[in-house]
Every structure is written in structure tokens, then in C-alpha cells.
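chain below, 600 aa
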Amino acid sequence: MNKDLLRNFSIIAHIDHGKSTLADRLLEETKTLSRKQMQNQVLDSMDLERERGITIKSHPIQMHYKHKDEKSYVFNLIDTPGHVDFTYEVSRSLAACEGALLLVDAAQGVEAQTVSNAYLAIENDLTIIPVVNKVDLPSAMTQDVKSQIIELIGCDEDDIIEASAKSGHGIDLIFEAIINKIPPPSNNDLDLTRALIFDSTYDNYRGAIPYVRVFDGVIKKGMSIKFHAHGETYEITEVGHFVLKMIEAEELKSGDVGYIVASIRDMAHIQPGDTITSRDSPCLEPLSGYKKIKPMVFSGLYPVDGDEYDQLRVALEKLKLNDASLEFSPETSEALGFGFRCGFLGLLHMEIIQERLEREFDLNLITTTPNVVYEILLRDGETIKINTPSQMPSTGDIDKILEPMVSAEILAPKEYIGAIMTLCQKKRGIYKNTNYLSPEKAQIYYDLPLGEIIFDFYDKLKSLSRGYASLDYDFKEFAPADLKKLEILMHGDSVDALSSICHSDDAYHRGVAMCSKLKELIPRQMFEVAIQASLNGRIIARTTVKALRKNVTAKCYGGDITRKRKLWEKQKKGKKRMKMIGKIEIPQEALLAALQIGED
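prediction:
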């Protein structure tokens, strides 16, 4: 195929700015799908994506467009997510493209992820086509939004396309821009084979299937390939393109986007960002790939039924193929048994992973309190990293505790600046500066502790700004803080699943709230149960679940009082013995409800 007729591009935008709707219109205009196959959010194939109205996974698809110059062009579109927790997906998609459509909602303007994704595209040296979407809305501020885009990427006003993905207005101009502005891939068919893995999936019958962008050479059926990262070799049984479903092809040439089937059963052999080359004539240098993003939030995932542990391990391995930013390692909890310590990019990412495990793999899971990674500087000079309170050394060994700080960028209308700054101060934020993208829209920069923003910060930000504010953040550094380990003791035993690391200013209030909540939720026993909050070994709060009282004298219908006293004494001794050997079973509902304390 003539490379001049091929275009590879992504659509990037903030969440809910119309990426999926624009992708639907492009598919409709190119007649890639029949009217019978068309539905809203075609590329959002998961039920979860449709329910929440967000894109979670990047979805590649090939389209054929007949231009008015009678030439037939091939477009490889890779749709991308918009939420801050899925930035890694976006970076992987952009590594496989030459250009990007930067979509901005005419009613909401440039938001945090618009800025972040635009910078990602610039870093990848992509051609950016700015598009103002939803210009037909009554609340559209088209001219104001154009000014914000010019401020952001420094383009001319004539370069910005006005469109409405819903009605189809401006779609022809978008096709013209894709053809005229985005460069075609280079013709490197004769070079040594190099293909970048940007995603993958698992098929029970065909094994792990890598999604690739071929940069050099040709990949075809029967060819032996080699993975650059670990040197494993496989023979290809099928290659093809994506047209909603996988469509088999003869070969993938340089510039093509497609998939490879090679009966790869070991899921660890596919690493996103790795280079695939030919076994017989391997390339000398791998493709640069992309930077691995480290998890920001850690939480424990435990099966409700202990027998499902192996099933959970296999499910996590399969999900990691489809979401390379997920990390996990085995861990044991006294309260919850065997499970996995998982690393996520954010709270939404954690929520999505849990729901996908429960829906796609039919698992019933318990999630522990989310934690971030802390650095502990010990008195002997050693530095260790911990991501769970149970790993924290004893107080006497600790010299300093360092918490992760992030550079947060908040975009909001100017009338909400005061409320936003108050919220950031409450979360121990350090103010940096404020920029104005337009007379009405401000860009506020703060340094914030990651541990303070993973719970309810985003919800509170949306609430006080009536939904207009948006947030983006990047890890900055580890900084010293006055942090302490808060433990919950049940009947004298520490419950590791309920322990947390918190700032000393919040510790007392959180301990009291946790004890009160558990008192309501723990069922009464035949003996008295003490629930205590301990801070660095010192009890700071306590509540008691009263014992159930059995009327042992009900059978006495008269006679001497000494008989009743004997029965009461016997009961008292029994309760005392029961208290010594009794174990408390914490119901799952109590555990889950108590874990939400951090969100209050």
C-alpha cells in the first residue's frame, strides 16, 4: 500500500469533552460500520465504560476514507481515555501515532487533562490539530475557548476547527486536516524489523495477543519473531488489523497498526513498550518505547472466599496484559488471609480494576484502605520504602518519615479561586502561583501531599466549584512530615486491615471516628469487647461493645436467693473465661464501612 495514503492519529481531550462521540462520527462518515452496527460510544466496548460515560481503555480501529480527489486513504485511529488516572494509556497510544486531534469542549474550555495531554503530544513530537467541539450548545463560548487554545499551544486562530461531533458539523474539515496536516509514516519496509507493543489482550484459545505499531520492516504469518526485552522467540500464526473486531491480513508493513497471534502462553513475556523484531535478522537498537509510570496508590485486594486466591492471581495477570500500569505482589493479612498488594495510578483506577475483576472474572473481593508509598529514614542511616502500615518500623528506630508530594494544577473559573485555595490549605497544600488562561479562567498551582488528595479531594473540588474545576497532578518529591501510625485494636489484638498512616493533626479525630463506627457495626458477643485506637503505642480512643446478657435465673421460680446468686457467680466466671479465649470475627460489612472513614 502507498504510505502517502496512510495516517495514524489519536484523539486526546479532558474527560467528557466528546472523544467517543467524535470517534462515532468518523466511523459513520467513513462507513466503517453499517447503520445497524452503529451505537453510541462504539469504541467503549466495556459495560463499565458505558455506565460511567468514560473511556478506560485505548481502542485502535482502521477506517477507509474516500476523498474528493478520488484517492482512498487509510486512517488508523487510537481512541484514548481522558481521566488523570489513565494518562499512561494516553502516552502509550501517542507513541504509536504521527498526529493527534486535540478536542476542547466549547462550553467548558481548556481543562487540566487538556493541558496534560497536549504536553504529552508535544513531547512525542506529534502534529496537533486543535478542534473546538460542541459549538452548537447554547452555552458555547467558542471565541473565548479559541483564545485559551492559542494560549496553550501557540497556534493561529485559523488552525482551530469548529465542530459538533453530535450533529456532524465540521467533520469534513477534520478529515481535510488529518490528510493535509498529519504526515504519513516513513517507508521503511526494507529495514530490519522493529514493532512497538502499545497494548495487549488475552484470548483463552490463542494466548496473549500484542497490539503493535510497525515502524520498520514487515511482519507476516510464519515469520519467527523475537522480543527484545527478554530474547524469547515465537512463530507467528496470524497478523491483522482492527476494524472493531480483529480482521486477518497477509502482513503488517512499516506504518501499520495491528495485532500478532503467536500462541504466547506466558503472559509475562509481553511488556508494553517492548520492541518486537525478527529472530533471523534482529534489529540492533530497540525502539525508545515510553517511560514506565510508577503506581501512586496502594491497596490490598483479598478474595472473600480464600479458595479463590489462585483465581484472583490468574485474573490479575490477565488484567495486567490489558493494563500495564497495574502492579501486584502477594501479601498476607491476619484479618483477611491471603491476597495481593496492588499498585494503582489513582483512586478511580483502583475502583475500575476492582469492578473489572468482579465482573469479568466473577470474583468477590475486599479492598483495604488505600495507602501511598512513604520513605522512612532510620536512625542507622538506612532508607526504606513502605506502602502498608504493617511494614512500618517501631517508633524508636525512625529518624524521619517522608511523604510523597505532588505538583497539582487546578483549572477553574475565577469566582471559585477563594474556595479552592481554602480547600488546598486544609489539605496541607503549599501555594505556588496563579495564571490566567483568559479573563474568566484561572490556573492555580499547589504542592499537595498525595496522601491527602487520594480520598475525597477531587469530590470536594467538584462540589465547591459546581463541577467546573478540573485537577491534574504529577509526582514531585518526598518531603518530611509529622506522620504517625494509627492502629485499631479489637479485644487487645491489632487489626492490620484497619491500620493507617496519617498526619498527627488528624490522628485523634480519625481514631475516635473509627472506634465509633466499629461499635455500631461489630455484632455483640457473649462477652464485652473493647475497641481501641492506638497512636504510636499510646491508646487515644476507646469504645466498648456491651456483652449480650442471658437470663440464667429465668428457670428459678422461687426459693432462696442464694440459688440465684450461685448461678450469677457461675455466669460471671464463664464470661471471664470466654473473654480470655474468645476471638472476634469482624463481618465484611463492618470492615468495608470502617474503611470509608477516610472519605468522610
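The longest strand covers residues 398-413. Residues 41-45 have pLDDT under 50 and may be disordered.
thats it, cya
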